[in-house]
Inverse folding.
């Protein structure tokens, strides 16, 4: 192993040691399910903000987004980033405070399915079970995408088997998450967001230098038709440009709708220690998201020029998602100091992946152990915790199996899971928080309709192409919202006790 590889390995091992220590440290604070899955609602504003956004961005920020920009220019990546930025801010603005308050009023709910059940006083528990099933269906492949990103990282860097690298990464993530639960995941996410920021900054500065300056970057990218346009797109296969219509723009911006139904983000809102600190968390999180996504898109464009000047090899297909890895590898060859900096970059990629995978594992585990199997093993105080950890391990094994294919696209897997949550939970969450007339029948019907429409649109409608080639989240979200409203109006109004809780949550008294 070369000196550069040794330095990179040192940086990464140091980082992994830190997150495992954090997991061990917080393992002693998990006395019950509330602590393990929601941290006892003790998160500060900075940890809440940065852990929410770090768990949101995932490996998509450092691998998926630059990869899309590298291949096709700024249209797809840019409009997606704009939609996510708007969605982030609006979610913090209108959902965070109301959900924090309402989740306490509604039986001190610690998971989203529990919130829906308690919000509508659903004695049948159908909302609980359907919500938990939705989480399992979409979070397992989402978690698998994180494991896959780790496998790609270490495989391309150290030349080891993709599967071996992926399994080792999964073991580390599962290890500290099983130990420390929500508090460990949130604390490591906060640290990981800092490492991700440093990694983006280093790559940006080094990439511009190697590419010959911003002027050269713009000149090279400008030679490709539609590459630097928000109203056109570049096709890397045909080497031609094409129009980027209004429907497509709205389709990509629809990514922002996903925030209203994303469990691992909404749980952070529920866990903050004081709703009065949410405005500060909103400002911190929103600013970080805008800056980090802008830099990520720029890195993809800079990476293209680096390929053109011969500093990097030309990347095709899903290999474009390793652009930051390639830049880090190049940086490592300039001395021990730069090799250590390269290690920080790669630790940043690892951090981005782990920050989402740990949150997803907790959410999926809570859906199974607390919502689907709740009460099965609650014979003593330790049984729920044992069930929680065993469930988390079982879900991880399934995710590892799904991630065994090294050719899977991180961006593709994440986009499907994101759409699933956005359509299933987003309309249900908005109507639950802001529409007094909504009832359990509408919430249940909307949840099922949204989840089903994701599959229908992606596999039956979208392949038709043309005007039908719309990101499945947008039509599925609209269908779910319409179904929720119509069914609620056609079925009995909520009982008085439900209305009183709604008014209490709305007034804040």
């Amino acid at each position: 192993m070369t000196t550069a590889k040794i330095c990179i390995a040192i940086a990464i091992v140091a980082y992994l040691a830190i997150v495992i220590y954090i997991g061990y440290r917080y393992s002693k604070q998990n006395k019950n399910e509330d602590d393990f899955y929601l941290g006892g609602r003790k998160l500060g504003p900075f940890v809440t903000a940065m852990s929410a956004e770090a768990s949101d961005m995932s490996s998509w920020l450092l691998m998926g987004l630059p990869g899309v920009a590298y291949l096709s220019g700024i249209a797809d990546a840019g409009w997606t980033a704009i939609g996510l930025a708007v969605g982030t801010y609006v979610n913090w603005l209108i959902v965070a405070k109301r959900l924090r308050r309402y989740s306490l009023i509604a039986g001190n709910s610690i998971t989203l399915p529990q919130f829906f059940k308690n919000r509508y006083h659903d004695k049948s528990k159908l909302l609980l079970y359907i919500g938990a099933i939705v989480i399992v269906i979409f979070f397992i492949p989402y978690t698998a995408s994180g494991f896959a990103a780790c496998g790609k990282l270490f495989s391309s860097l150290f030349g080891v088997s993709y599967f071996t690298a992926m399994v080792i990464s999964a073991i580390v993530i599962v290890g500290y998450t099983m130990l420390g639960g929500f508090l460990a995941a949130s604390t490591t996410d906060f640290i990981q967001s800092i490492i991700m920021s440093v990694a983006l900054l280093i790559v940006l500065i080094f990439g511009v230098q190697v590419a010959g300056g911003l002027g050269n970057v713009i000149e090279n990218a400008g030679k490709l038709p539609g590459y630097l346009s928000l109203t056109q797109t570049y096709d890397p296969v045909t080497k031609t440009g094409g129009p980027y219509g209004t429907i497509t723009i709205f389709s990509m911006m629809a990514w922002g709708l996903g925030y209203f139904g994303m469990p691992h983000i909404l749980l952070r809102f529920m866990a903050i220690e004081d709703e009065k600190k949410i405005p500060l968390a909103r400002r911190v999180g929103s600013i970080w998201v805008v800056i980090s996504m802008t830099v990520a898109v720029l890195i993809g464009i800079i990476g293209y020029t680096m390929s053109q000047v011969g500093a990097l090899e030309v990347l095709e297909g899903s290999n474009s998602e390793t652009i930051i890895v390639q830049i880090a590898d190049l940086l490592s060859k300039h001395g021990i100091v730069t090799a250590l900096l390269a290690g920080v970059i790669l630790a940043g990629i690892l951090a981005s992946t782990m920050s989402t995978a740990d949150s997803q594992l907790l959410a999926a585990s809570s859906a199974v152990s607390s919502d689907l199997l709740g009460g099965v093993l609650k014979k003593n105080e330790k049984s729920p915790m044992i069930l929680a950890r065993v469930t988390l391990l079982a879900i991880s094994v399934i995710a590892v199996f799904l991630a065994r294919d090294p050719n899977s696209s991180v961006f593709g897997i994440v986009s499907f899971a994101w759409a699933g949550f956005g359509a299933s939970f987003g309309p249900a969450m908005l109507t639950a928080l802001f529409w007094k007339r909504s009832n359990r029948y509408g919430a249940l019907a909307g949840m099922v309709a949204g989840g089903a429409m994701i599959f229908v649109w992606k596999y039956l409608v979208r392949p038709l192409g043309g005007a039908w080639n719309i990101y499945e989240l947008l039509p599925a979200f609209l269908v779910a919202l319409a179904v929720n409203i119509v069914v609620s109006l056609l079925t009995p109004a909520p009982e008085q006790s439900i209305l009183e809780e709604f008014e209490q949550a709305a007034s804040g008294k």
